[in-house]
């Protein structure tokens, strides 16, 4: 499921990514870094879809998941920058 969401986002298919993520539960994912990756991909999907507020609420840092993953990844920094840039002022 994590990989399906990532592939859909990478291909620009935000709707599929969100549908796949909604159809499953991240509670079943035991590895915190994988949960963080899933939440990041879902945030990217919402950004692609133009639903910035929902994207912000899915970022792992807001939920306390893997803070070292969030602060150390350049991709996360780009995502947050894009959410701030494209979101409502």
Mean pLDDT level: 78
Poorly predicted regions: none
Largest sheet: none
What Rg is obtained from the alpha carbons, in whole angstroms? 12 Å
Oligomer: single chain
- Shape descriptor reads globular
Q: What's the helical proportion of residues?
A: over 70%
- End-to-end Cα distance, whole Å, is 33 Å
Structural class: mainly alpha
Give the strand content: under 5%
Q: How many individual domains?
A: 1
List the helices and strands and how they pair.
Layout: H1 2-10, H2 14-22, H3 32-49, H4 52-58, H5 60-63, H6 67-72, H7 74-86
Task: Please supply descriptive tags for the structure shown above.
89 residues; mainly alpha
Structure, explained:
This protein is mostly helical and 89 residues long. The chain is built from seven helices and no strands.
Question: How would you sum up this structure in a few lines?
Answer:
By secondary structure, this protein is an all-alpha fold.
